[in-house]
Amino acid sequence: FGFTLEKGIRTLSKGRKGRWWDIETKIGGKKYYISVKSGPYDMDKDQVEHFADRAEEVTGGVPIIAITYGKQPSDVIKRTLEDRGLSVSKNLYIGRGLYALLTGQNDYYRRLLEVIGTASAGVDIISLIEEKARELAVELRRRYHSMCDFLSDMF
């Protein structure tokens, strides 16, 4: 799923894959180095720290974390960026703001939602979620015979 989103963002940005960066592109005459994440909770502190390390290497451009959906990033992302001297408003684009940056159209997300809505017509999302929950429950029961087994595997 993440690769598909990254490919879509690369297409929208008219960019190319970089050595480390998911996308390198020019928007409005400015060079952007983009790390794509699907959702607002898809990065832990170590990943944000690694982004910040890579961002320090960028000269002549703007390194950004591009989060494909959501309204607010996790507190971990915000805090870690700020602790590393990066700007949430300059180095992080999420949901609507990301699509506005990439296309120059503030309401582009509406078009995107229409396309997704049309493509998913007739899909019962609740049934899909319930089925996935059943699959996960079966897998957990197979792997762990008790809560103690489950917790022991975590530590």
Task: Give the SSE layout.
Blueprint: H1 2-13, E1 23-27, E2 30-37, H2 45-57, E3 62-67, H3 75-83, H4 88-91, E4 92-94, H5 96-103, H6 108-119, H7 125-143, H8 147-154
Parallel strand pairs: 2-3, 3-4
Antiparallel strand pairs: 1-2
Q: What is the alpha-carbon Rg in Å? A: 19 Å
Q: Which outline best applies?
A: globular
Number of extended strands? 4
Which residue ranges are poorly predicted, with pLDDT under 50 across at least 5 consecutive positions? none
Strand content: 5-15%
- Major sheet summary line: 4 strands, mixed
Q: Count of helical segments? A: 8
Strands across the major sheet, in which order? 1-2-3-4
The chain-level mean pLDDT equals: 92
Order of helices and strands: HEEHEHHEHHHH
The helix content is: 40-55%
- For the termini, the CA-CA separation is 29 Å
SS-derived structural category:
alpha/beta
Brief summary:
Helices cover 55% and strands 14% of the residues. It has 155 residues and is of the alpha/beta class. Helix 2 packs parallel to helix 3.
Distinctive features:
single chain, 155 residues, alpha/beta, four-stranded mixed β-sheet, 4 strands
Please give a structural write-up:
A four-stranded mixed sheet has the order 1-2-3-4. The two termini are 29 Å apart. Helix content is 55%, strand content 14%. It is built from eight helices and four strands. The model has no long low-confidence stretch (mean pLDDT 92).
